[in-house]
Amino acid sequence: MAWAWVCASCCQQLAEAVLPTSRRVGAEERTPLLGPVRSSQSPGPSILRDPGSTNSGFSCSFNGSTSSESLSGAPGDVGLSAENSTLWGPGATAASWPSAVLLADLEQDSRQGERALPQAAPTGLASLKPEASWSSSRVRARVVAEAGAGTTGSAGPELERRSPRCHGSPEYPELRRGQPPTAPEPPSVMLLNGDCPDSLKKEDGAAEPQRENGLDETEPGDETTGQEVIVIQDTGFSVKILAPGIEPFSLQVSPQEMVQEIHQVLMDREDTCHRTCFSLHLDGNMLDHFSELRSVEGLQEGSVLRVVEEPYTVREARIHVRHVRDLLKSLDPADAFNGVDCNSLSFLSVFTDGDLGDSGRRKKGLEMDPIDCTPPEYILPGSRERPLCPLQPQNRDWKPLQCLKVLTMSGWNPPPGNRKMHGDLMYLFVITAEDRQVSITASTRGFYLNQSTAYHFNPKPASPRFLSHSLVELLNQISPTFKKNFAVLQKKRVQRHPFERIATPFQVYSWTAPQAEHAMDCVRAEDAYTSRLGYEEHIPGQTRDWNEELQTTRELPRKNLPERLLRERAIFKVHSDFTAAATRGAMAVIDGNVMAINPSEETKMQMFIWNNIFFSLGFDVRDHYKDFGGDVAAYVAPTNDLNGVRTYNAVDVEGLYTLGTVVVDYRGYRVTAQSIIPGILERDQEQSVIYGSIDFGKTVVSHPRYLELLERTSRPLKLLRHRVLNDRDEEVELCSSVECKGIIGNDGRHYILDLLRTFPPDLNFLPVPGEELPEECVRAGFPRAHRHKLCCLRQELVDAFVEHRYLLFMKLAALQLMQQKAGKAESPAPLENGGPLSSEARPADPPGPEAGSEEEGGSASGLAKVKELAETIASDDGTADPRSREVIRNACKAVGSISSTAFDIRFNPDIFSPGVRFPESCQDEVRDQKQLLKDAAAFLLSCQIPGLVKDCTDHAVLPMDGATLAEVMRQRGINMRYLGKVLDLVLRSPAREQLDHIYKIGIGELITRSAKHIFKTYLQGVELSGLSAAISHFLNCFLSSYPNPVAHLPADELVSKKRNKRRKNRPPGAADNTAWAVMTPQELWKNICQEAKNYFDFTLECETVDQAVETYGLQKITLLREISLKTGIQILLKEYSFDSRHKPAFTEEDVLNIFPVVKHVNPKASDAFHFFQSGQAKVQQGFLKEGCELISEALNLFNNVYGAMHVEICACLRLLARLHYIMGDYAEALSNQQKAVLMSERVMGIEHPNTIQEYMHLALYCFASSQLSTALSLLYRARYLMLLVFGEDHPEMALLDNNIGLVLHGVMEYDLSLRFLENALAVSTKYHGPKALKVALSHHLVARVYESKAEFRSALQHEKEGYTIYKTQLGEDHEKTKESSEYLKCLTQQAVALQRTMNEIYRNGSSANIPPLKFTAPSMASVLEQLNVINGILFIPLSQKDLENLKAEVARRHQLQEASKSRDKAEEPMATEPEAAGPLQDVGSQPAAAKDPSSPSLQA
Question: Which of 326-340, 959-973, 1057-1071 shows the highest mean pLDDT?
């Protein structure tokens, strides 16, 4: 059971904060508090949907990175072999996370789901590792390690927290090479092996993933198979804490914790938070900070730990002052607005009135209390107003409670020698709220008042001196206001949700901020002028050796789960710290605050070293990229290199090292930050490089060890080992592109760098004389010359292309085999055509793709035979007969495989590289490789782009802004330079109307990207003092209707008269020309149109911003958001009058800041991902409980690796919330979804499309918990954000408006409800067509409201429309049609009754005898039922017999998959159509099954 020991203080430290909190004693529920684990935020998951489901809930593209890494990293990394369709599937269609609660779209073509979920089920299953069936839900340990170093705040007065030992607090010793961190002791939780039903065990056992990538990764858990389950119980106990000045209290601890973690809890508790310098004593013995409690003799249940105040040192005194500052600023959002210390914004609590935790219970029974439902005018359908201020509503907690006016370091620091000998450490200056000015001495014994003033130094103690061990105690004595306000502040601090306070892993910047008062802050002031090394780095006074740390963490062992967790956590932590340091350094370089290492050279050529990180600028120094496009190529090379680093890191080959790499765009400059190879600065590059080429292929060298290491990456990366000629015409063997350099550092490690051409070139943008491209490319106007010659295909495209070829290979081989087998007896029908067989697939005239009548089993067995045969031949044991070999050989040749006995497609990245020559003997291979590249270029145009447009038409993906559109394109391997082509295809599409939203987003993205390109060079010419003027002038030219804005140049008195124009070594950001000031709106828009044509090959029909808005239906506020996010601009939160023709929209005061835009590698948690995937597969099969346990375990492991905050944890929480909701546990659903919303706001941004989705889910769970007003305000917030991000005309808006309309209907606001429902009807009709089932449902919802208003004529009219759709789409006998018909009868009867009554009144006047009319207010249950239907959740009760049948069916299909294990989605309906065939939902313990598409209980 070696793998069972998992790091105690980490593996479970956040389980409860993020896991379903077990119902424990009140405030004992603990929530997490992590130290500042930094990391980056990626563009984040795009919103992906099953085409069928109106809202498939947890559908996030989980791989939050911009990169080519699919969630899993390298195929081998996660056990996703090429045999099992990769996550994004054959068309590289991003799979939305399959849910058992997704409704099949009943519109005629229910098979359209194929593209959205290619083989989701088998993927999930096939990648199950043995661990995947463990579950720790039974032995859920108490969370004991939660508070982080440097964080303040607490979740509740008595909530205890602990510090995550592994996430590094300032005292942590640095990781040194050769001294890997010791693996922490076993956890309180244990992953159980075999805690699943037998049926699951069988499946899990069967799904042993194939190792396709040549990496023999040890299968974790193998050694444990079949052993009995050993459970390590959590033997937590409680101790009593005795602190000076407060009542003793007890604290629950676990033996695995460290003493340091108790310190953290005490520094966070409301009543002990002001102490930092103390030790803990047991029976008079001091406990060691870093020892574990289990090792402390005599520590047991009920022991008394005494808090003993320790003498201060200068370091301790500084830490104390910083801690007090953090406590005073704990509610102040300034750090989040300024993008400092990984703080970011969250506004959920403004709309939920605080924590939702217990409010489910608190607000029960209030459901029909009067609530104000009227939204602000700008939220109502049809409103043209798009205000900006509501984006960041003022949180009432932010009104600062002033405890002190000033707390700062005194000018008398440092103490003179004679005072040091009296114990003086430093002096502070304070002005209290009562305006009393005092000087304070920090001495070894504590803090006291001295007699100094601002101008007179007198260090003698004042009388009285108020000596106190803590600064807070001293201030409490001298200022009554401080005492009162500090207590209130701490009370508020501990009431905030921990997720509002924890640092995010990477910094998230806000593009708007309110006008803030600038307050005096000694800590920030000190940070600004020191390198802060004494605090944030591990060892005071010593910079971190980043390269050593990055490489040491990669060398950590990874044989079993605990080792891998420890390794991944260490990698993530070091990487996030490195990213933060690199970002700070890059900004310092551009701002001119770092000295160049070659100061005499011209600015562009300068290089810098700061904090052991090497910085270079994105310019072509020494004509390095002359043949590739000069400066333009030098600008793209770093991002290409970063993609290469990401890819090699994902493959994770032992012994091969890459550099830590971060690319920062700031103020128009691109800075590459890299860790430094030991010894590289002491020798020439020529001497160092022992593999690859330093001059793009003229001199090339190779090295056997490098070839061996790179050979192990070649299979997963699809790279071909090849030979090239050097300048002496000698053949040199390589297993990468020639630019890839191998250098052995002084530490003996093998490094590879310059990975900018890891992937093959994109021939569509690389015209080569004498080479003809395939017909599809020529038809689309390719090849086109691009600005640089570094255009590469994305990794996702290479994977999709290989996947596509594999399908073709299987089909050709199966066809030939069946023809052989059938012989003369009968001519077999060809197999179904799985993928689009475009003309680029070059087989010798493959058989017609007409669909065959083969049974699913038969075709699967045909493919299974091919597979078996291919394996036999590949193993080369001579058992295969010659005819079969011939079959495989033909198929291999047809698809371009490099082997003739097995399918194996690889690319040579040096083909078409200028300057690279190949030996004569390789000409055939080179010819084949050229053809393969042409085929790949054609595949992108003929399969991937049409596939993307089809998915958008089917609403399988629903991008909402530029970032989510870019993510959707990248997941299919389509580079952004193809955006013009995508838009052309959208324009020509027969479903142009249904793609209107895609067209608008695409045009907006095209305009803002073109503007960004212009802005980059524009900014390079601006000196620092003119920055805000220049940016506001650019924004006026870009967005304001004011015809001739004038730039405000910096005031003359600030400009030196004797300016030296020729000074070479100015810092990069200190250009001093004023050319930017003469730009006009006409000129800018002309340049934008020109850029769009040149770069994207798309013609924009507009000359001004107003024409663009008019022609393409764009919103200026949306364009402002997009350009700000892309360039890092932060503007003042106020209403801008864009359309005024009398004054410009922006002044220089409106530009508050410019932030860096950071690109980096996002390390992945592979084991956690396995669990997540397995959990999804279980849910998809209807095993909700098991799925829920696996997802909880995944969450646990994600927390262990990433800390509390991460995009992937957000996806986990959303899925858990959904599952709990389906299983009827609304409180748990609410709790998890609240965390998901907070996390999405914090790590993705407050108006990111993902956050909008999360708000909608939370509103549904609030409604189900009878919190109606909260549900409404959440829905209104979501609608406001969507209006700001895109506008009203989006398919997602129909869903949102249906939700709002239903809730309003439930609270009997009928008129208001109708406005939203009728808008939803209009939007649905536009995007789904008037005959779609979603539209029928919309008609029905409108009819219900009219019925409640007693307007029966309108109700009848709408219900008739709905009935007609059901009848034509589903037939008269379908239950939906019958339900609609019944409802029509009911409405008719009510209408007749009403008419009779009216007639009675007319006839008899007031004496009429009127029977009471029955107008039923809608019941909450019926409203909730409709809400579930439109949100894609359906409960179908099943009998036990149904259940047995369902399980048998699932088992049967699973065996079928095992038999075929083919990637041909057309041949495996089970894998491709989970919505139509998979099981649905589990109500409590009763699983349910989806019925066939004609099932009555399914809604559109």
Answer: 959-973
**Shortest CA distance to 1112 belongs to which of 1004, 1012, 1009, 959?**
1004
Which tokens go with 1061?
């124009």
For residue 234, what are the β-bridge partners?
A: none
The answer to whether the CB of 1220 falls within 8 A of the CB of 137 is: no
Q: Using an 8 Å Cβ cutoff, are 1348 and 1309 in contact? A: no
d(CA 844, CA 834): 18
**Token pair of 72, please?**
């899993």
247-305 pLDDT tens trace = 999 999 888 788 988 998 998 888 888 899 999 999 989 999 888 888 888 888 889 99
- The predicted model gives 1269-1273 an average pLDDT of 93
DSSP-derived letter for residue 1355 is: H
Q: How confident is the model at residue 1409 (pLDDT cuts 50, 70, 90)?
A: low
Strand 237-242 to 304-309 pairing: parallel
Phi and psi at residue 431, in whole multiples of 5°?
-115, 120
Quote the pLDDT of residue 397. Answer: 64
Check pLDDT > 60 for residue 1017: yes
Tokens 């003229």 sit at which residue? 698
Distance of CA 234 to the CA centre of its chain: 33
Query: Is the CB of residue 903 less than 8 Å from the CB of residue 895?
Result: yes
Helices (H), 922-995: 923-939, 945-953, 962-971, 979-988
Task: Count Cβ atoms within 10 A of the Cβ of residue 838 and give its class: 0-12 exposed, 13-18 middle, 19 or more buried.
Answer: middle
pLDDT in tens, 597-652: 999 988 888 999 999 999 999 998 878 888 888 899 999 999 999 999 999 999 99
Instruction: Tell me if residue 957 falls in helix, strand or coil.
Output: strand
Write the CA distances from 530 to 324, 541, 689, integer angstroms: 20, 11, 37
Residue type, 1254: E
Q: What residue has token string 């192990």?
A: 712
Instruction: Please calculate the CA angle 647-648-650 and round it to the nearest 5 degrees.
Output: 65
Distance CA 343, CA 509 (A): 9
Q: Quick one: tokens of 266?
A: 């005490």
Residue type, 1327: Y
43: amino acid identity, one letter: P
Return d(Cα 880, Cα 878) in angstroms, integer: 6
Within 10 A of 86 (CB to CB), how many other CB atoms are there?
Answer: 25
- Residue 989 has a CB neighbour count (10 Å cut-off) of 18
Separation CA 1432–CA 535 (nearest Å):
50
* Distance between start and end Cα atoms, the chain: 49
- C-alpha to C-alpha distance for 486 and 183, rounded to whole angstroms: 41
Q: Are 135 and 191 a contacting pair, CB within 8 Å?
A: yes
Per-residue model confidence (pLDDT) at position 270: 87
CA distance 848 to 583: 56
CA-based Rg of the chain, rounded to a whole angstrom? Answer: 33
Which stretches does DSSP call E strand in 314-364? none
DSSP 8-class letter at 4: G
pLDDT at residue 1451, rounded to an integer:
72
Residue 533 CB neighbour total at 10 angstroms:
15
Please give the model's pTM, rounded to 2 decimal places.
0.79
- Looking at the predicted structure, is the pLDDT value of residue 107 above 60? no
Main-chain dihedrals φ then ψ at residue 1097, nearest 5 degrees: 55, 45
* Residue 207 DSSP SS3: coil
Q: How far apart are CA 1163 and CA 38, in angstroms?
A: 12
pLDDT at 362 over 80: no
Residue 26, burial from CB neighbour count under 10 angstroms (0-12, 13-18, 19+):
exposed
| Euclidean distance between CA atoms 1467 and 376, whole angstroms | 53
φ, ψ (nearest 5 deg) of residue 438: -135, 150
Q: Tell me which residue has tokens 């490099």.
A: 898
Of all residues in the chain, the percent with pLDDT exceeding 90 is: 53
Residues 732, 923: Cα–Cα separation, whole Å: 15
